[in-house]
Design goal:
Layout: H1 20-33, H2 40-47, H3 51-57, H4 64-67, E1 72-80, H5 85-95, E2 99-105, E3 112-120, H6 128-136, E4 141-149
Antiparallel strand pairs: 1-3, 1-4, 2-3
Helix pairs in contact: 1-2, 1-3
């Protein structure tokens, strides 16, 4: 991204409210980045998107992880209070390449506890959305939210 793009305002928008063309543009960009396709034409064919729509959106829509400059993120969890849940959660976070900076856990009430983690994700080996999906699949995790990012 060029510096002039940072002179514009940016908004964080949930994927489910994005127009289909923007979502398909993101998919095509990812295929190109990961070398799953050799050309823009091949990428837009695979996602069923016009080349003009791709070129319209390619420099204006970005995955969350590419906009985060500082690579620090704070996650909030609502967990079932079971023995070993925090240990298992931290193990998954650490195995993804994140450096855990801070941990805050509330006293469990009514069988649930809140945990807030501040993470350095500079060396993360997967995209943040992949990590969030993996954490949400844990049976003891009721909720995972991104509270913020930055320094």
């Amino acid at each position: 991204m060029s510096e002039e793009k940072f002179d514009k305002k940016f908004y964080l928008v949930r994927e489910d409210v994005l127009p289909e063309a923007m979502i398909k543009t993101l998919e095509a960009k990812e295929m190109l980045e990961r070398k799953k396709v050799e050309s823009v034409w091949e990428a837009v064919q695979k996602v069923d998107l016009s080349r003009s729509a791709f070129y319209k959106y390619r420099d204006t829509v970005f995955p969350f992880h590419t906009i985060v400059k500082e690579r620090l993120i704070t996650l909030f969890f609502h967990l079932e209070d079971r023995s070993g849940t925090l240990s298992q959660l931290l193990g998954i976070v650490a195995s993804s390449g994140c450096n855990i900076l801070t941990i805050h856990q509330t006293i469990p009430l009514q069988g649930r506890a809140n945990v807030t983690l501040s993470l350095n994700i500079s060396n993360m080996e997967m995209e943040i959305n992949e990590l969030l999906a993996k954490l949400r699949k844990l049976e003891f995790v009721d909720q995972v939210e991104v509270l913020g990012s930055g320094a």
